[in-house]
Amino acid sequence: MIQRRTFPAMGTTVELLVDADEADAALDAAEGEFHRLEAALSRFRPESELSLLNRTGSVDPSPDLRRVVELALDGRQRTGGRFDPTVHDALVAAGYDRSFEQVPPDAPERSAGAACGGSVAVGERIELAPGVRVDLGGIGKGYAAERAAELLALAGPCLVNAGGDVAVRGGSWPVGVQTHDGTLSLELTAGGLATSGIDRRRWRRGGNELHHIVDPQTGVPAQTDLLRITVVAADLVEAEIWGKALLIAGACAAEAEAEVRRLPAVIVTRDGRTVLAGGLA
Amino acid sequence: MTSHVGRLYALALALLVFFLAWATFAARPWAGTAGASPQLRSLAAREQRLRRESIAVRRVVAQRWAVYRAQLRQRQALNAAAATAPAAAPPVRVVTLPPLTITRTS
């Protein structure tokens, strides 16, 4: 019997599904894990460990912050800088400077962008180069969903959906992917699935339509011919990293790279096409 | 007495001359290379050829060893990269079942 629980966390709605007769304790633990990690990794909470790092430029990190920063830096290296945790100032410059539901949908000021790609050193402490600040929004949510799925899996096969970022442990779960032609069902039994796109989390500044996917090369919201892309990978953090990287790459490059890297992907373009790539058929 | 000692000296001198002459003849100083037998010349030529061939073989072995070492380093680098590469994506397929949940831009 599938049990379901939804709750708000990390600026979105989290959905927990577990195939078990008795799973209240696991559901509580998974929900608690989300709230615990949000308290540490949110850039919108002044008391969070991440906010302390961004304020002071240096922190003696908890294991979770250290791990997420390491994963993000590894993702930056492997995507050639298309995924980058140092987009914090560029997001703020674009107007995404508070929890999204509080971002004014329209304002007169124009975005000037901000440089990305600054140095982040992870050793005994995490040290940011002067002027560098870190955003762990997407990858932090993916990490939290993975940790929650581990806890939930103690009760049975499960799925964690954090606002579209999905982590699966066992079982067989049809997950709907929106395309121009309707909803496509992908059956997942393990790993993670993430959707990145420019169709949500949008706002206007100075008459310009902006969105939350910043291209680290330019420091402003990415110019891409993709509306959204859904990527399946061995875990949700990996899917999150490649979802953003392929979205910024654009349709042709995304399809080619998904094939080369064997990353199953559903690519939805702005001109109404839906492409299955990376061995997905 | 005097003649007896003289005879002994004469005998020793004769023996010395005999051994010197034997050693000189045994060394055959008149036998030069030009005058060596065809078998000796053939052996000398073969020795030279084998020396040249062994040098060439050593050079080929060194070249092949260098190529092997380079290929080994390349394979080791590829193995190291594969060991640190992310795991492969799990099996996923398109199905006609109604979705239990929906993914959207997060």
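qc> Chain A touches chain B through 53 residues (CB under 8 Å).
qc> done
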